[in-house]
Amino acid sequence: MGDPRGFLNIKRVEAGYRPVEERVNDYREVEIFLSDEERRLQASRCMDCGVPFCHWGCPIGNIMPEWQDLIFKGDWHGAYRILKSTNNFPEFTGRVCPAPCEASCVLSINSEPVTIRQNELSVIEKAFELGYVKPEPPSFRTGKKVAIVGSGPAGLAAADLLNKKGHLVTVFEAADAIGGYLRFGIPDFKLDKKIIDRRLDILKAEGIEFKTSIRVGKDISSNELIKNFDALLLAIGSRVPRDLKINGRELKGVYFAMEYLEQQNRIISGQSISERSLISPMGKRIVVIGGGDTGSDCVGNANRQGAKSITQIEIMPEPPLRRTEDEPWPLWPKLKKTSSSHEEGCERLWNIKTLEFIGEKGILKGIRTIKVKWEKDPSGNMIASDIPGTEEIIPADIVLLSMGFVHPEYDGPVYDFDLSLDNRGNIAIDNNYMTSKKGVFSAGDSVRGASLVVWAIHQGREAALHIDSYLSNGVI
């Protein structure tokens, strides 16, 4: 520990964002960077705990205290070496991870955890700046071939590790570009797509082959992959969105959030969208149904596109600002999150249930809602009940459904291999990440359900280790 009293003498300082009046006029990343000296001071706040609960909170087990100490000492190369030993893509997690490690930081007891996520981002960006991140192709090849279906964080993490083990890795992606929801779901103001391309250039130089616009089960058969590759990893994500099947769902103006986000990301990349298909919030009243990160991303996009008004509604109660007794440290607390997008302008409503979409001549005009209250039933489960007399009409020209995802798409390998599913409809795997089909593995949201980028990286890494054992020994 470089400064034993750092956590006492230095206050937590977050890097913050560019001014609202500036950032709503562009799609450049909103978060700014502290100076190297200020970052050193923030790293000095790490207590190097005897039992570092940040490790426990981090799905990939980042070794936080060690690289915090090296940041303080100005050893960026050493910090990078330790960081990359557990995390394939710190430039992704450093931008979009909600930092469960910080919730478990001992200093979080006083709500002043170390700025671990921002420190991590500083390490990887400094490593790129100083030339530490460069292609490192494997020194030998095993001759074994692995096909990975899906190029999100789980697929990319697995591809990286399996390639480093010397296997020949080919990644198949149904979309026309690599990255999954990193590319098509997360807005550029949170994750500039040049960051993805920068990493892809390295992965390609290390020998990984990427094939886009290929839907397995349609453009290439699932059985053909089994025939031509020694192992197959399905990292296809959880792509089926949760719908709201109420009266008026067919009205023009009701869209899934990912339809909208992907379209805008494609526009930012330079692609053109037909006028007929364009979802344009300019001068319109926008309602986002769902209070999570995807809903927040919709808010940020709509702000930049000149929406007349933006309302985000959530059926659950408004979360607390601080931990409650039900979620003590070091557990992850469900707290009210105000994102950079919310700061740019948005009305947020809780305990609101949508009853009906209202329209005229097939065009959306508003939604009919009612307030609910939540109470525990005899079994301890929280149950919502309508509050009489609280019905309201919220005017809306566009409604974006952002209520999460239910399970992976079944068309393709899931049906072709007749894979077993768990009770939530996700792909079932054993302790070695193998599905019910021998030689076919799965990881990420297709197994866990829609979750965090850092969990996808963790599962991709774990699956890669089991696939390597399967290829090397014939057993796991």
Short description:
The chain is an alpha/beta fold. The chain has helices at 6-9, 20-23, 36-43, 53-57, 64-72, 76-84, 90-96, 100-104, 116-129, 153-164, 181-184, 193-205, 222-228, 257-268, 293-304, 340-343, 413-416, 445-448, 453-473; strands spanning 145-149, 168-172, 209-211, 231-234, 240-241, 254-256, 285-289, 309-313, 347-349, 352-360, 363-376, 382-386, 392-395, 398-401, 405-407, 440-442.
Walk me through what this model shows:
- This protein is of the alpha/beta class and 476 residues long.
- The protein folds into three domains: 6-129, Fumarate Reductase Iron-sulfur Protein, Chain B, domain 2; 145-239 and 406-473, FAD/NAD(P)-binding domain (3-Layer(bba) Sandwich), CATH 3.50.50; 243-403, FAD/NAD(P)-binding domain.
- 33% of the residues lie in helices and 16% in strands.
- It is built from 19 helices and 16 strands.
- The strands form four sheets. It has a five-stranded parallel β-sheet with strand order 3-2-1-4-16, sandwiched between helices. A five-stranded parallel β-sheet has the order 6-14-7-8-9.
- Helix 16 (340-343) links the parallel strand 8 (309-313) and strand 9.
Explain the layout of strands and helices.
Blueprint: H1 6-9, H2 20-23, H3 36-43, H4 53-57, H5 64-72, H6 76-84, H7 90-96, H8 100-104, H9 116-129, E1 145-149, H10 153-164, E2 168-172, H11 181-184, H12 193-205, E3 209-211, H13 222-228, E4 231-234, E5 240-241, E6 254-256, H14 257-268, E7 285-289, H15 293-304, E8 309-313, H16 340-343, E9 347-349, E10 352-360, E11 363-376, E12 382-386, E13 392-395, E14 398-401, E15 405-407, H17 413-416, E16 440-442, H18 445-448, H19 453-473
Parallel strand pairs: 1-2, 1-4, 2-3, 4-16, 6-14, 7-8, 7-14, 8-9
Antiparallel strand pairs: 5-15, 10-11, 11-12, 11-13
Helix pairs in contact: 3-5, 5-6, 6-9, 7-9, 10-19, 14-15
